[in-house]
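User: I'm curious whether this sequence folds into something compact or stays loose and floppy. Could you predict its structure so I can see for myself?
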Amino acid sequence: MTQIIKLNTPDQTMKLGQKLAQLLQPQDLILLDGDLGAGKTTFTKGLASGLGITRPVKSPTFTIVREYQTGRLPLYHMDVYRLEDGGGEELGGLEEYINGDGVVVIEWSEFVAAELPDEFLRIKFERNDENGDNSRVATLTAQGSHYEKLLAELGEV
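Assistant: Here's the prediction. I'll summarize afterward.
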């Protein structure tokens, strides 16, 4: 199941994250893919806001994992770009995060594909500069019945 959403502004990208956050539960896994600057961290800021996290959200590029414990659910935000040459084992404990008490968001998930479970929600962000409006297109793809239900509940954004 796939849903395509045009996002005209960074604020709309954040609102998508806020809306999705209302539907999330422990052990939900969100994979974020797209070029640098495509909207992955902006979306995660919205997701954190929707979970009630007030601490500023920063890209975890150099730390690999940032943990936010103060919301309705904990948020584990991972950026695995630095694991491009394999090295998913460097992430250590990925399974513990995924089977834990919070929501896991992984940017650049293709670099740890072998360590991922079979079910997840993948969101691919792409620039849509054809009209010079600097908008984005988010393609949400549900893998597994739980995430198909989640997308159906998300509805129109």
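Summary: The chain has four helices and seven strands. The two ends are 16 Å apart (CA to CA).
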